[in-house]
Amino acid sequence: MSHVVSAVNPRRWGRRTSILLLAVAFTVVAGLLAGLAGISAAKSRSGLPTEVVRALDNLKRTGEISAKDRAVLLKHRSIAAQVIDPSKTRIVDESTGDAGAGLSPLAGGALTAGAAAAGKAGCHRADRYISYRTVLGSKAFDWHKVLHYCWSKTGKVTIKERRYYLKNNDGTNYDRGLISNTQTGKGTAHYASTMQGKVENCVLKYGCIMVKNPYIRIVVNGKKGLPYQIWMRK
Q1: 18 three-class SS
Q2: Longest Cα pair distance anywhere in the chain, in angstroms?
Q3: Minimal CA–CA distance to 231: which of 219, 220, 213?
Q4: Cα–Cα 20 to 30 A to 20, which of 37, 42, 188, 227?
Q5: CATH code for 88-233?
Q6: Is the Cβ–Cβ distance between 222 and 191 less than 8 Å?
Q7: Residues 6 or more apart from 70 whose CB is under 8 A from it?
Q8: Is 146 helix (H, G, I), strand (E, B) or coil?
Q9: Residue 226 and residue 140: Cα distance in Å, rounded?
């Protein structure tokens, strides 16, 4: 019995081999590109470490810093020094009053204090601020509101100074002005002043990660012995 062995066409085999090699090469290149894309995405902020990018992404999304992300940032102190820690914000008072005006010092929060005895004219300069600190505990910036007001013997309130300002800015926070700025009752016995700011906290090589909106409202009542109230929100 005879067997017929078909001849192999060298050209056809060569084409098949080339196609197979091209397919393998394409698969390898595609895998490499996918890997590089993943690395690029993780280090898309000008080469920041992957874990830092992830921690900043989480903070930007949630507005909070988890214990895990805080530990990551603390390993990279140059980054941690730029990031505001929401848990370390403080409310502070630098108010001053006329000698003998009967002013009581204010602690943090929404409080009421007797500003003067009824029937006595005087002035008071309220300087309250909200202090924002970084993950390292250093100051990021202080957002101040100043209200310097006077009252007559009849209790009418006049304003000598009213403004806000940033102090101790570490250079990575950007003042975007006021999103609320109102006052009512000038020249009357009941005056109210509200200011709310907008400050962006940014990180070099990453961008801005959060917006802080410090809020301070002061209300002065000239007919009840000049009590004044202050509301503050971080």
Answers
A1: helix
A2: 133
A3: 219
A4: 37
A5: 2.60.40
A6: yes
A7: 85, 135
A8: strand
A9: 35
CA distances from 151 to 92, 126, 158 (A): 24, 14, 6
Q: How far apart are CA 74 and CA 21, in angstroms?
A: 49
CA distance 90 to 70: 19
**Whole-angstrom Cα distance, residue 216 to residue 211?**
16
In this structure, are residues 167 and 140 in contact, taking their beta carbons and an 8 Å threshold? no
Residue 173 tokens read as 């926070």
Alpha-carbon 178 to chain mean position = 15
Over residues 90-114, the pLDDT tens digits come to 887 766 543 333 333 333 333 334 4
CB 146 within 8 A of CB 159: no
Per-residue tokens: 159? 């304003």
pTM metric for this prediction:
0.71
Structural domain boundaries in the chain: 13-42, 88-233
> Among positive and negative, which fits the CA dihedral 192, 196, 178, 105?
positive
